[in-house]
Amino acid sequence: MMSRKMGNPDLPYSALESSLSLLPLSDRRTLFDLITLHKILNGNVNAPELNDSIVINNPVYRTRNSIPFYPSFARSNYIQNSPMIRFQRTANILSSEINVFTITINQIKNHFLSKLEPSTPLH
After folding, report:
1. Which domain of life is it from (predicted)?
2. Residue 6, helix vs strand vs coil
3. How buried is 108 (Cβ within 10 angstroms: 0-12 exposed, 13-18 middle, 19+ buried)?
């Protein structure tokens, strides 16, 4: 619909994203997952049941595997993609780049915005 409003209905989605300086949808979802998890961990969201569903990994021995969260086991893909499990899984995947315990929301946003390439003009 946006490509039609811009005057070129056959414009590919990736070109539309770059012309509007948008992150790809997968990166936007990851960004908002991390921001939401950060807000829950720092008490910006008043929901004790959400805090209770987060399991922080506290290893007894120092190992190379240093994932910060231990999401609950999911028996189906539906449960695997539930928000709380997805938030923790995303934070584990990006734990080498982003520490959700010490970083600010603006730093999380800047990390993802640095992935944007300078937009090129459309012809």
Report:
1. Eukaryota
2. coil
3. buried
Question: Hey, where are the domains in the chain?
Answer: 28-113
What would the pLDDT profile of 74-102 be if each residue is shown by its tens digit? 899 888 889 999 999 999 999 988 889 99
What is the sign of the dihedral through the CA atoms of 98, 72, 40 and 52? Answer: negative
Amino acid present at 23 = L
> What's this model's pTM, rounded to 2 decimal places?
0.77
Q: Single out the residue of 68, 118, 111 nearest to residue 93, CA to CA.
A: 68
Concatenate the DSSP letters of all residues of 15-71 into one string: HHHHHTTPPPHHHHHHHHHHHHHHHHHTT-S--HHHHHT--B---SS--S---SB-P
Burial class (CB within 10 angstroms; exposed 0-12, middle 13-18, buried 19+) of 95: middle
Contacts of 17 (CB under 8 A, 6+ apart): 23, 24
Could you tell me which of 97, 94, 89, 103 has the C-alpha nearest to residue 41?
Answer: 103
Burial of 71 (0-12, 13-18, 19+ CB in 10 A): buried
